[in-house]
Amino acid sequence: MPAGWKFFFRLFVLVALCLCGGSVFSFYSLLYEQNGVEESTVVLVEKGESLNQIARRLKENDLLSSIAVFKVAARLSGKSTRLRAGEYRIPAHASAKEILDILVSGQTVVRRVTIPEGKTSRQIFDLLLQTPGLYGDLPSPPPPNGALLPETYVFSYGLPRTIILERMLGGMQKTIEELWPLRDPDLPYTTKEEALVLASIVEKETSVPEERARIAGVFVNRLRKGMRLQTDPTVIYAVTNGTMELKRRLTHKDLRTDHPFNTYMNKGLPPAPICNPGRESILAVLRPQKTNEIYFVADGTGGHVFSKTFEEHKRNIANWKRARRKKRTAAVKKKPTVQKTVKKPQAQKTPTKKTVAKPAQFAPAVAETAEEIKKKEILDQQDLSLDIVDDALIEATSEKPVDPAKTQTGSAQAEGTK
After folding, report:
1. Predicted local distance difference test score (pLDDT) of residue 66
2. Bridge partner residues of 43 (DSSP)
3. Cα dihedral sign for 308, 304, 227, 177?
4. Shared-domain flag, residues 273 and 216
5. What is the mean pLDDT of residues 89-95?
6. Spatial contact of 242 and 144, defined as CB atoms under 8 Å apart
7. What residue spans of 91-189 are helical by DSSP H?
């Protein structure tokens, strides 16, 4: 080869090497270059998306400086077919290499759905249907109350709702199987189903965790004495046909509702749970606090005052009502007075002939039926349980009603008469 050609050949090789080296250097620089995003970003990779679609979405979120570099790196590393669907949290200033590793790792964003204690199965289904990130339908009708365990459940984007349902069903079954052997030997109920029934009532009676075992003890004492439980949540269940969504206070008429779940009218436990109780309420009815108490009344702060005798119970109720009246009086004094416009007296008109009404005829007294007498017996002092709602009808017109579904303690606490 002539000397001139050798020179040009060597020059060509040198330039090619420089160009290749520069390209390689540029490629790796872009691959490890950090993006300018200051905060972490959640990116969704849909199932079935191509490498090109994923790269474009990353570019749209300013997470990549070069789509080509990301795609080449994915193919050269053999990771282009290993990208997993799901939600990923990309940290601030992440490089293309770091993002690629994150999408291959499968470490998706953890979502959570919290199922509160004391909800009905229908209410839980409504909550799941409103939870973003879950997909698919739920069976109809929902499982019976007492079958689902209230808990916080974690999931990844796109999880079928039926998977959460299976976890709740399995969680309740596992919980009752685990706690049942820990029960006291002398309980007035002998099956797991009966324990769940009472646990659902305890769950709705108090929002104070420390009171669960004590309230369970009151109900156990009443069952042993053959007394009616007379608990408001069962009445709410009865008058709302199981929805537990009552937008007003309970009344005397409600307490007399003819329904198998109404423990003011029926002795013993209701036929089934009225809600889905949590683990602590289940444990409370399996190991109730041992006392001689058979009454309790709201204390005005979310808790209760307990008593052993009806006379003591009446004093507690009077104290509660006295404190409530004082609170209302103070609230009325704080209200700004509104100045009324005084109207001028109008000129008197010439009196016209009036028609004199005949005196009303009084209907003859009707003897009470045996059924009416039986209904009145539920308010007899010797059998009065947790409620005296003697002024419910009056107060319902003068004060904004309380939503028992939100307080989880029933209308009786709003009335101060447990």
Report:
1. 87
2. 88
3. negative
4. yes
5. 92
6. no
7. 96-105, 121-129, 161-179
